Amino acid sequence: MEKFESTNNETRKHILQVNKFISIFISELLKRGNEHDITKLEHPEVEIFSEYTPKLAASTYGSEEYKNFLKEMGVALDHHYKNNRHHPEYHKNGIKDMTLIDIIEMFCDWKAASMRHNNGDMLSSIEKNKDRFKYSDELMQIFKNTMYILENN
Known about the structure:
By secondary structure, the protein is an all-alpha fold. It has a domain at 85-153. Helix content is 73%, strand content 0%. It has 7 helices and no strands. Helix 6 (122-133) packs antiparallel against helix 7. It is elongated. The N and C termini lie far apart (44 Å). The relative contact order is 0.09.
């Protein structure tokens, strides 16, 4: 009986430790959610995003038109990427330098952005972003697997 008690106590400690670590993630994600893209409400981003958000919504993600809009938004996007670590462009080595928290925020950002496009498609975005941001087939599959959680809730 003592043997089981010791194992149960260790298992309970383990459960509490995992709960603590998950709580740290949750806390950080809630903070990120509250502060997400706040720079879009400030100069120099607000003026440019106000003009281009409707244009981007009417374009097809990844199209030449879309890419041209991004070029035209240069000053705002440069500022945005320098101040928002959930974008691969923030990091010297792109996605390779990101944390899990960054990637979760980025993924949620992609989903929300795909919903703003008139013809938005999260699956297509994941596939196009693989080339754009140079991530692995494995990460692409993880994104696809995770996409269904957001779409079914």
